[in-house]
Amino acid sequence: MAVGAGWHHGRMNIMLFHSTYGPRPAVRAAADRLRAAGHEVRTPDLFGGRTFDTVEEGMAYNEEIGKDELLKRAVLAAAPYSERGLVYAGFSLGASIAQTLALGDDKARGLLLLHGTSDLAPNVSVDDLPVQLHVAEPDPFETDDWLSAWYLQMGRAGADVEVYRYAGAGHLYTDPGLPDYDEEAAEATWRVALGFLETL
């Protein structure tokens, strides 16, 4: 796939979406890690600055905003940069948003999913879109049956999917500020994810 003017192989333009907890410090830390590897990273705030201490509070606020409004905010955040070819990425809820945007963007360079997936729109089709998913094993929000069905659907849609599971980790195991945190799994995830980005 062609790289836009001013870009070289290995340097990606990443749109990183936060989880249902909101734009917590871990999102900024992840963006800094990606920038240190040479990537350009943007972290849209879909919650207007609101952050939450529990998943229940975050999900309630998410439902208050509504799925359509969240997607609209995400699309508006990504639109000014999509012509350059974005890598869409996100945490949990943000991963589901990233997936939806990437599958609808024929210029997408890749999709990095951390702790989450989403339903696929009917008849969605991509051209060998590179996709990498990192998820706990087990994960109450991403069950084995769901992930098996998701993997098959993504393959049928034309995506080139890699899935990495982390036994014993909590759902949002990359966030040091949450009880889910698992340092070993988080560091392994970032090593693999940075390698993935270098191949795009």
UniProtKB/TrEMBL annotation:
GO terms assigned for molecular function: hydrolase activity
Q: Which residues form the Dienelactone hydrolase domain?
A: 14-199
Instruction: Tell me any Pfam family this protein matches.
Output: DLH
Keyword list, A-Z: Hydrolase
**Which SUPFAM superfamilies is this protein grouped with?**
alpha/beta-Hydrolases
What protein name does the entry list? Dienelactone hydrolase
The species is Streptomyces achromogenes
